[in-house]
Structures are given as structure tokens and as C-alpha cells.
Amino acid sequence: MRFFAVLTTAGLFAGCSAPAEGPIDPADIPVALVSPLTELDLIAATQASVQVLLDTTLVAPWGAHRTTLGQGTADCPLIGSGEPDGVDIAGNGLIDGGTSYSAACDAGGTTFGGYLYWELAAAGDAADRALIGDAVVSATDAVAFEFDGAGDDHLTVNGADWTYASDLDATISGTLAATALSGPGGLRTSLGLELAGGAAPAFEAVGDVLLFDTLYQGQFDSVHADLTLEATASSLTDCTEEPRGVLRFRDANAHWYDVVFAPKYLSNLEYEDETYSACDGCGTVYWRGYRQREICLDFDFLWDALAAPDLQDFSL
Questions:
Q1: Secondary structure string (H, E, C) spanning the chain
Q2: Is residue 186 part of a domain?
Q3: 195-251: per-residue pLDDT in tens?
Q4: Which of 249, 214, 217 is nearest to 34 (CA)?
Q5: Is residue 102 part of a domain?
Q6: If we measure between CA atoms, which residue out of 4, 1, 2, 11 comes closest to residue 207?
Q7: pTM attached to this predicted model
Q8: Domain that includes residue 45, residue range
Q9: How many domains does the chain have?
């Protein structure tokens, strides 16, 4: 049910400079943020950036959609089969029998505006769902749920083993869709995640997240990832200590911190294959494109954070 392409480095953020060598004067920083060369805990910032990625799936917006539907009435919003009137969603490999509404109405204090189209299919230990639209649901003068874009995800559970994939290209906000790091102000994302747990944990993230109103770690508002890691050796890699690819996070002054790990095959990022290709859990940090220093992480924090969505939540 992968019906749209996830944008990568060119998607949300432009202007990232290529790596270069040379000193950076911390006095260059125009506002009082933590100096990247002295006091900043780059390991904690890297871990928090990974958590932003893990939180940015269809799980939160789908839950908000389910809750707001429960706040409606029989005719607000008026729900029907197929595409909303005047909206063309066909041709994207969707499941037959999708459901939608197109509304501008008040359901006793909860107002619905715009349209949403959704699909849901579950069989045994596997489930798929999709959400497409441009809608705002408000209650008591606050936005409860805003969704503008498209997303889909898939979960398969086999005993203790599971796989989960989420593709999300949307603007999302509202009190019901808030995550611990985004808050109700929401986010803009174009992100694909592939996760696995159980006997062979795995993580892959490609894309971007921009938080509108919050700074995680008190400093950062954006993440870009082109990153993959497996906890057990496979035909693709024998390195389980270090990801392949790059993780980038941006501070409130629009300065990017790039943590460059082992080279990732077919990555479109601009870093050459350097000595960082050793499988040691360490990455080279660049600030504003200038090489700074190396940091080393224990990626058990990632495996501890992995959790499958609840199969029972693939419902309305």
C-alpha cells in the first residue's frame, strides 16, 4: 500500500553545505545556544534526534483521527464510501472500499472542516492503513487535529517478532496528534521508516522532520536522516555496532550538525568515504559543513526504544 514517494534530502530543507575543513569560531553563533565545540552533549542530541524519527509515524495522526470521528454525530461529518466529492485520489494503488468525509460542520462544539480519506485492512497478525486529506478538527477554540498530506503504514506480528513500516508526507498538528517531542504545535515531515523487532531488530530512516513550536534538547527543531542499522549480521552487512549513513539535526539558528557514520550504499549525501568507515560505533561530527570531532555511541538505546504499534489500534 505504498502509494506515494517519500522525499529525501531535497524535500524539506535546502542549503546544506558540503563538508569542508577549517576552524569555526563559536562567537559566530548569533543567539545564546550551547556552543557546538565545548558544552553541547552531542551524544544526547543524537539520541534525541533518533527518538524524533521513531515518534514520527502514522500512529499519532491515526489515533487523533479515530478520536475525532468518535466526537462527531450522525451527519457531522457525513461519512461515505470512496473518494470525497471533488477529490481525485484514484490511481495510487489503494484498497477498494475506502471511506471519506468532506465537511464544514459543527458537531456540538467539535467543528470539522476539509476532507479526509482513509483505508484499513486487517487479517490475522497483519494490518495496513492509509490516511489522505486536508482537514482541521477543532474543539473549544483549539485545534484538536490538523492533517494535510498522506500517510500509510503496515504492521506484521509473528510471535515475538514484528516488522513495521510507515511512510508519512504531511503537516500534522493539534492536541490529539501531539507527540512527546512535537507538542500540539505539530510538525512537517516527509519520512519513511522501516523497523523490526524480536530476533533480528533493524532500523532504517530516510527523510525529514521539522518541529514547528518546540526545541528538543532545548536547542533543535529539525532532523534529517539517511540511516540504517541492523542488530544482527545479515547478507547486507556484518557491522552491528554502527549505522550506515548520516544523521543531521538543526538548531534554532538554522545551523546543521551532521553525524557521519559508515558509508551507506546509494546514499545521495555528499561525504566521501573516510576513515569513519570502521565498524566501531563512532561518527564524525560536522557543524555548518565543517569537520569538528568524533563521537561514539552505544546503540542499545535504539534497540531499547523500538516498540511495535498495537495491532488493536489498526481500527476505527
A1: CCCCCCCCCCCCCCCCCCCECCCCCHHHCCCCCCCCCCCCCHHHHHHHHHHHHHHCCCHHHHHHHHHHHHCCCCCCCCEEECCCCCCCCCCCCCCCCCEEEEEEEECCCEEEEEEEEEEEEEECCEEEEEEEEEEEEEECCEEEEEEEEEEEEEEEEECCEEEEEEEEEEEEECCCCCCCCCCCCCEEEEEEEEEEECCCCEEEEEEEEEECCCCECCCEEEEEEEEEEECCCCCCCCCCCCCEEEEEEEECCCCEEEEECECCCCCCCCCCCCHHHCCCCEEEEEECCEEEEEEECCCHHHHHHCCCCCHHHCCC
A2: yes
A3: 999 999 999 999 999 999 999 998 999 999 999 988 876 655 677 777 888 999 999
A4: 217
A5: no
A6: 11
A7: 0.83
A8: 1-56+179-309
A9: 1
Domain annotation covers residue 70: no
In 3D, which of 125, 121, 101 has the Cα closest to residue 111?
101
pLDDT digits (tens, 9 = 90+) for 254-285: 999 999 887 776 555 556 555 556 777 888 88
Does residue 11 form part of some domain?
A: yes
